[in-house]
Specification:
The protein is an alpha/beta fold. The protein folds into two domains: about 70 residues, Phosphatidylinositol 3-kinase Catalytic Subunit, Chain A, domain 1 (Ubiquitin-like (UB roll), Roll); about 200 residues, no CATH class. Helices cover about 45% and strands about 15% of the residues. It contains eleven helices and nine strands. The strands form two sheets. The chain has a five-stranded mixed sheet, with helices on one face. Strands 6-7-9-8 form a four-stranded mixed sheet, covered by helices on one side. Helix 6 packs across helix 8, helix 7 crosses helix 8 and helix 10 packs across helix 11. The radius of gyration is 26 Å and the shape is globular.
Length: about 325
């Protein structure tokens, strides 16, 4: 009987990096995991190895028995030692906060007589994102937290949430390798909203306006689960209110009316966009148009662009349709 002693050359990819390795066919999967632990700092107990979508799980099997051949490409998933430590620290802090809250709830509370208008403050504190958490096992979680915090503090988003009484339990992120193709997900009508913050190669974050656009889409799912006409109508309204609010702020207008014309004066960028579009087959805007006509063209051009972007976004939303997930 001839024993094959020729080494197997394979490549393991992990978070955009490639690790060429050479092992004997009769070495076990455990030996491969030990090398990967040294190279990537992903502990063996947390490693997930995929060969053509199939998980390699039995550590006692030899490489030949697992089906690994010369030139094979294997994908590695899993958090590093450092990220696991950060996750445990976060879990410990969360457990500590919950313990403090339970102890406070068990103590009798003194009744405090109100001395001023507090109802608006109570409403304001209710309609918001109650928790913000990046995924601690992904690179640079603090950068992701900063982006999530910026979204939660965005005055236009807060304005929309107050107007429509939207409350979200958790604002967090989607991992590209775990949910490829998805840009956003709303779990249980606002229990949690998950957004795709990172690029496919984990080498940066997506643009703020793009992520905020997805957030408006997922906020609409607090009311409507499917991408039906009711959803489209409300989503269009939210996008318009965000644009109204920002335009009002830029113009120094503190009162927001019911229509664009009440507070809106076209900005140079939108004005140029309106001149550059032929809307519904009509001729481009003329220099002789009135202010109202320019406003109308700007609104039509902007909403047409947003509608097109929204149609594309629906294909990458995991909240409705066959791709919907429970968590």
């Amino acid at each position: 009987m001839t024993v094959n002693t020729k080494p197997i050359s394979l490549t393991v990819t992990y978070r955009g990096g490639a690790y060429p390795l050479s092992l004997l066919p009769d070495e076990t999967l455990s030996a491969l995991q030990a090398q990967l632990e040294a190279l990537t700092s992903v502990p063996r107990t947390h490693q997930k190895l995929l060969l053509k979508g199939r998980k390699l799980a039995d550590e006692t099997c030899t490489l030949a028995q697992t089906g690994l051949k010369d030139g094979a490409k294997v994908q590695l998933l899993g958090p590093t030692f450092e990220e696991i430590g950060g996750l445990r620290k976060t879990e410990d802090e969360q457990a500590k906060r919950e313990r403090i809250l339970r102890e406070r709830a068990a103590k009798p509370q003194a009744k405090v007589r109100s001395t001023g208008p507090s109802s608006s403050a109570a409403i304001s504190s209710k309609y918001r994102f109650h928790r913000i958490e990046p995924l601690p096992h992904l690179p640079n979680p603090e950068s992701a937290r900063s982006l999530l915090q910026r979204l939660a503090d965005d005055p236009a988003i807060r304005h929309v949430m107050q107007n429509h009484q939207f409350a979200v339990g958790l604002l967090t992120e989607l991992a590209p390798h775990e949910h490829p193709g998805l840009l956003g997900l709303n779990v249980n009508a606002g229990q949690a909203i998950k957004l795709r913050l990172r690029t496919d190669r984990y080498d940066g974050l997506r643009t703020y306006k793009e992520v905020r656009r997805v957030l408006c889409h997922e906020l609409t799912h607090n009311v409507h689960g499917d991408h039906d006409n009711n959803f489209k109508e409300l989503n269009s309204k939210l996008n318009k209110e965000v644009a109204q609010y920002e335009e009002a702020v830029s113009q120094g207008t503190h009162h927001l009316g019911e229509s664009w014309g009440d507070v809106y004066e076209p900005s140079p960028g939108l004005e140029a966009e309106a001149h550059g579009h032929v809307l519904g087959g009509s001729v481009p805007a003329s220099a002789n148009d009135s202010v109202e006509e320019r406003r109308r063209r700007v609104l039509e051009a902007t909403m047409r662009r947003l509608q097109k972007e929204e149609e594309e976004l629906e294909q990458s939303c995991g909240t409705a349709g066959p791709s919907a997930m429970a968590s």
